[in-house]
Amino acid sequence: MGKPKVAFYWAASCGGCEIAVLDIGDRLPVLAEAADIIFWPCAMDVKYDDLRAMEDDFIDVCLFNGAIRNSENEEMAGLLRKKSKILVAYGSCAHEGCIPGLANLVSEEDILDRSYISAPSVENPGNVLPEVKTETPEGELELPELYDTVYTLDQVVDVDYYVPGCPPVADRTWEVLEAILDGTLPGKGNVVGAGSKIVCDECSLEKKETGISGFVRPHLLEPEPDRCLLEQGVYCAGIGTRSGCGALCPSVGMPCRGCYGAPPGVFDQGAKIVSALGSIIDSTDPDETDAIMSGIPCPAGLFYRFSLPHSILRRKITDGYED
Amino acid sequence: MFEPRIICFLCTWCAGAGADLAGTSRLEYTPNGVNIRFMCSGRIDPEHVLWAFGKGADGVLIGGCHPGDCHYMDGNYKTMARVALLSRLLDDFGINRARLRLEWISAAEGAKFASVMNDFTEKLRSLGPMKPATREMAR
Ligand code: SF4
Ligand code: SF4
Ligand code: FES
What we know:
The complex is a heterodimer.
Chain A: E1 5-10, H1 16-22, H2 28-34, E2 36-39, H3 48-53, E3 59-65, E4 68-70, H4 71-83, E5 84-90, H5 92-96, H6 108-118, E6 133-136, E7 139-142, E8 146-151, E9 161-163, H7 170-182, H8 199-202, H9 248-251, H10 269-278, H11 286-293, H12 299-303
Parallel strand pairs in A: 1-2, 1-3, 3-5, 5-9
Antiparallel strand pairs in A: 4-8, 6-7
Chain B: E1 6-11, H1 15-24, E2 33-38, H2 46-54, E3 59-64, H3 75-92, E4 100-104, H4 110-127
Parallel strand pairs in B: 1-2, 1-3, 3-4
The complex binds iron/sulfur cluster (SF4) (2 copies) and FE2/S2 (inorganic) cluster.
């Protein structure tokens, strides 16, 4: 094989995954030397039509970041799938839905209302909302259609590999790029560029296996250094999150927020966090237990901060239905 | 009349044995439940409960040994804490937390199992069926 042809694309994402690729730093010229980067809207001048004109399977590997939340995202996912031999869900958004996926806790109507009408900084006297099609004197304008629900990449197209992380850390990204260049990727469907345990396993903070008798928000506590944050009552997602980042956050005194997603063998990250927290509560009294658990505000938002679209229930029941 | 579908996750030593006793004593109770036995209620993973709801169960019953009686010492205390948190999680998903019920039922309490099933079925009838999450999810 000649130089592999590589593409990068972003859908519903913040742009951090693009920076994460650049974060490989002085290894970037090595990549540019060893591969032909043929499509990368963030970094080069390319048009969607260039992509449409390619033969199917023309691209060897496409690193796709971002979730799917509008018709443009979905169309590009389909197009890049067709044009790529290997499609990689790169980063938490494409893998499990990530922060954009939290939109699944509200409805499309709520989102439009908040963004275009009710937010205090918005001035929109005519209550104008974006329309898919708009007539103007110059002709008809078209915008992508916003979906009610955010999807992961593999909920709309077939995906070959997953690289977790928000964003993936540079060394892990480089491992994956090297494996691509050397042709040593494992079998299809694998999570690559991550560990096979949980964050606690990589975290050097001391665990004394003491139970929790109350939760405290991180900004209200000056934590004892070198001691497991969770055991001090700070909610830490490390107990239900895949390893691979090297426990970056706890190593600087911040709890893990869960960005590497569900650990191996786990489908639903939030359920696993409920399970793990439930086993370390220091009470046998139902009322006291309930009071301790009430110290966690919005469990769904916290436990699925990075994986709601990939969860079992995927989204909140809306549609004006009161259960 | 609406017949709710109930998944009952029961520990084998107490609640499961209680359900057996209800049957062998020929007690009559609503036939809406499907029993799935675990060695201990502490082995019931929140994933199991969410899968049940995600696949269309109208209610989930978790049954374990009375506090202090778990055959694995503290499995049921873990269950209690998980259910407390899981109920809050269901609120966030727009699912009425009354659809998840935790009961301690001993091996001698066949009558309690029967009355819990009758009562839970009634409550779920008044709540009505679980709705498919949204028009989008149904596609
Ligand atoms: S601080 Fe968090 S990641 Fe570290 S051991 Fe405690 S729970 Fe695990
Ligand atoms: S510690 Fe947790 S939130 Fe921080 S980078 Fe690692 S997985 Fe992500
Ligand atoms: S064995 Fe019954 S709850 Fe543990």
